[in-house]
Amino acid sequence: MTDIIPTVEGLAFGGDYNPEQWGRKVWDEDARLMGEAGVNLATVNVFSWARVNPGPGQWEFGQLDAIMDHLAANGVKADLATRPTDLNPFLDRLAIEPDFPDAPPGLELVRRSHEDGRSYLFAINHTETESRVPATGTDLLTGADWTAETPIPPGGIAVIHES
C-alpha cells in the first residue's frame, strides 16, 4: 500500500475485521467472502493493540502488517481502530492522571491550556440526566456565563473559556 491515506472509490462498505482472533487459516476465505459482498473497507486491530505494543518500548507489527497486506492484496482498505479501554495500559505507563478524577460516569471533560494562561474546558454529557461541570468562565457555544452550578443537560456540550 503506497497511499498514506488511501481513498475508497464510491461508498465505503465494510465493518470490524478481527482475523487475529481465529488465525491465518481462514484469511483467504474471508477475503473471498468480502469480495463477494463488495466489502472495500475493514476496521482492524480493534482488540489487539496489546499485541502490537506488549510492553514499554516493545513493538511487534508483524501480524498487523500481515493482516493489512492481505487486505490490500484483496482490494480492501484498512481503518485502524482501538477500544478506549485499550489505551489504559499506555496511559498507565505514561503516568497520566485525569484532570477530573471525580467526574461522574458519562461526563467527559477535557482541559486544554495555552502557555499564555488561556484555558478551555470541553464538556460532553453522555448521560440521560443533567450534570454539573466544575468550572467558571464563559460558554463559547452560547456566550453565557458559566459557574460550577450551571447544569449541562443530557446529551449537552459546552466549551468553557475558563476564567
From TrEMBL:
Q: Output one GO MF annotation.
A: beta-galactosidase activity
> What GO cellular component is one of the record's annotations?
beta-galactosidase complex
Q: Which GO terms describe its biological process?
A: galactose metabolic process
Q: Identify the SUPFAM superfamilies for this entry.
A: (Trans)glycosidases (SSF51445)
Source organism, top-level taxon? Bacteria
Keyword Hydrolase set for record: yes
What is this protein's name? Beta-galactosidase
| Organism expressing this protein natively | Glycomyces buryatensis
Print the organism lineage: Bacteria, Bacillati, Actinomycetota, Actinomycetes, Glycomycetales
